Amino acid sequence: MADWTRDLAGKRTLVTGATRGIGEAIAEAFSRFGAKVAITGRKPESLDPVAARLSGEGGEILPIACHNGRAEDREALFQKIQSEWGGLDVIVNNAATNPIMAPLAETSLEAWEKIQNTNVTGPLNLIQKFVPGMAEQGSGSIVNIASVAGLEPAPGLGAYSVSKAALLMLTKVLARELGGKGIRCNAIAPGLIETKFSEALFQSKFHYDHFIQNVPLGRHGQPEELVEAVCYLASETSSYMTGQVLVIDGGSRV
Ligand SMILES: NC(=O)c1ccc[n+]([C@@H]2O[C@H](COP(=O)([O-])OP(=O)(O)OC[C@H]3O[C@@H](n4cnc5c(N)ncnc54)[C@H](OP(=O)(O)O)[C@@H]3O)[C@@H](O)[C@H]2O)c1
């Protein structure tokens, strides 16, 4: 493993959706490498055990209950981080939702808006809040956790697929607009990773086998297999990289 301690120690980081899965693995790595880590999830009862575990391992953890789709929660998160740390060096927009499986033409506007609010508007608005501070300090790294479903159409997951495509274009537009201020913006596009989010696919052998037969590495991934790529994008190790998408999917798009 690379010496991320050198790159991430003391960085003020935010990882949204860090109560489990990919976000928890990222928060754990950041903390292990000496970063200060603000973690979010919707409920304190889910956040607190993660915060206790990581704090117990010596990390500086700031748990903040924040529903990504609620403007008032995002503003409270911003105020809390400003008052504790005075700003951020790294934002990892990881929290996302996908409450429905339905053809896009039959997706209710209520579900559509919930997905876009949480997966696109939330990340954008958090970035908007912290960018002035990053611009003032002349540095910042934003890492958006998208999906291969944002690169290729995912029938049955249309609203989610569109939200991740939007997140990828948001990443590229921001890279163009913020590069001159010293702020970089990149994305990760994971394939199938074993978490609660993807458990439905694991419960159907037929669908799982169908999916995996298109993966050259012949298996799904684990959250830990994304973590070092996020460390790379978050840190100065990737100082000449912005607007890029790292696809980590076992090769399924080759
Ligand atoms: N797993 C995969 O196969 C896969 C593939 C490609 C991309 N991704 C992406 O990876 C990211 C993480 O997914 P995961 O697989 O780790 O999922 P997960 O295990 O279900 O974790 C999702 C996290 O997001 C939080 N969250 C959910 N809705 C939220 C909201 N409205 N506001 C704030 N936090 C919210 C959850 O916390 P609470 O429930 O405690 O609020 C939880 O911490 C997502 O962006 C997902 O789209 C996953």
Describe the structure.
The protein is an alpha/beta fold and 254 residues long. The protein has a single domain, classed as 3-Layer(aba) Sandwich (Rossmann fold). Helices cover 47% and strands 15% of the residues. It has helices at residues 4-8, 21-32, 44-56, 71-85, 109-137, 158-178, 199-203, 205-212, 224-234, and strands spanning 12-15, 36-41, 60-65, 90-93, 140-145, 183-190, 245-248. Strands 3-2-1-4-5-6-7 form a seven-stranded parallel sheet, with helices on both faces. Strand 5 (140-145), helix 6 and strand 6 (183-190) form a beta-alpha-beta unit. The radius of gyration is 17 Å and the shape is globular. The chain starts with a helix and ends in a 6-residue tail after the last strand. Bound molecules: NADP nicotinamide-adenine-dinucleotide phosphate. NADP nicotinamide-adenine-dinucleotide phosphate binds next to helix 2 and strand 2.
Give the SSE map.
Elements lengths: L3 H5 L3 E4 L5 H12 L3 E6 L2 H13 L3 E6 L5 H15 L4 E4 L15 H29 L2 E6 L12 H21 L4 E8 L8 H5 L1 H8 L11 H11 L10 E4 L6
Parallel strand pairs: 1-2, 1-4, 2-3, 4-5, 5-6, 6-7
Helix pairs in contact: 2-9, 4-5, 5-6
The site of NADP nicotinamide-adenine-dinucleotide phosphate has 30 residues, from helix 2 and strand 2.
